[in-house]
TrEMBL record:
Database matches in Gene3D superfamilies: 5' to 3' exonuclease, C-terminal subdomain, 5'-nuclease
Source organism, top-level taxon: Bacteria
Organism whose genome encodes this protein: Streptacidiphilus jeojiensis
GO molecular function: exonuclease activity
Function per UniProt: 5'-3' exonuclease acting preferentially on double-stranded DNA.
Name of the protein in question: 5'-3' exonuclease
KW Hydrolase (keyword) present: yes
Key words of the record: DNA-binding, Exonuclease, Hydrolase, Nuclease
CDD domains: H3TH_53EXO, PIN_53EXO
A Pfam family annotated for this UniProt entry: 5_3_exonuc
InterPro entries associated with the record: 5-3_exonucl_a-hlix_arch_N, 5-3_exonuclease, 5-3_exonuclease_C_sf, DNA_polI_H3TH, FEN, HhH2, PIN-like_dom_sf
Residue intervals of the 5'-3' exonuclease domain: 11-283
Amino acid sequence: MTAPSSATPPARLMLLDTASLYFRAFFGVPDSVRSPDGQPVNAVRGLLEFITRLVHDHAPDQLVACWDADWRPQWRVDLIPTYKTHRLAAEPEVEGQEEVPDTLSPQVPVIAAVLDALGIARIGVAGYEADDVIGTLATRHPGPVDVVTGDRDLFQLVDDARGARVLYPIKGVGTLQLTTDALLVEKYGVNGSQYVDFAVLRGDPSDGLPGVVGIGEKTATKLIAQYGDLAGIQAAAADPDSKLTPAQRKRLIEGTDYLAVAPKVVTVATDVPLPAFDPTLRAEPLDPVTLDELSERWGLGTPIKRLLDTLAEAGTR
C-alpha cells in the first residue's frame, strides 16, 4: 500500500483589482453611509464588506490588494494616445489626473490606511497599473489564482490548466461569474490565451481602444478560429489568395499601425519589479492600535469586526 502524500497543496492566491472594487462599492452603497462627522465612507465600508464576502466564499490562503500607482502609464499612452482619454479629469489639479467622483477621492487614502492596518498586502508600483501587478503575481504564483475584477481585459490571465480564473462581479460580489477557459469559449469563442487578440480586434471604447473598424466580437471570434491568432490574421490580410472578404482585408490593412502597437497596450505586464510583501492572510491585525483609531474615526466598527472575524475563521481552516 502506498503511503498517503504529506505534501502541502499549493496556496490559493486571491488578487484584488482594488480600484475596480472600490468604484463598484462607491456606486453600490448609498452615500448616506457616513462617518461620525458626516463624511461619506460608502466606498470604504463597501470594499471591506466585499473582502469579507470574498474570503468567506472563496477561501483564499493568500490575499493581495493590487493598487493603481499609475492608472494611465505613459508607455501605454505613447503607443495609443487615446488610451483612457475619456477618463481624464476636465480640470485636473495635476496633469493626467483621473476623473473620480468628488466624494470618492477622499475615501481612497482611508481605504489604504485600513488595509495596511489590517495587514492585507497592498502593492502598487510606479509606472504600472494594478492590472500589471496582477499579471505579474498571477503568472509567478505556482498554485491556483483567483483574480477579482470588473475589467474584462484580465480574462487574458484565465488558464484552466494552472487553475487561474477571474471572479467577475455581476452584482456586488455576491454574484460572481467564475470565468474559466471553458466559459470564455462558450461566451466569446476564445480561451484566455486568445483573449488579447480578440480584445485588440474588437476594441474597447471604455479604454479608448478603437479596434479594427468594422470588426466586432463575432467577426473577431471567426477570424481567430480561422487563422489562429493575430499574426495569422495579418498574414491572411497580406495574402491575396486567402479567404478573407475584400472588406475584411481592406480594414485589416488599414489598421496595420494600430495592430502593431495595440497588443502591447492590452497585454498586462508580467515583469513588474515588485517590492517585498507578505500575502498570507493574518488572523490578527498587523497594527491593532491604528486599526482601532481608524475604526472609531470613520465609524467602521461593524465592517471591520466582520472582516476580522472572517479572517480569524479562515486562519483555523
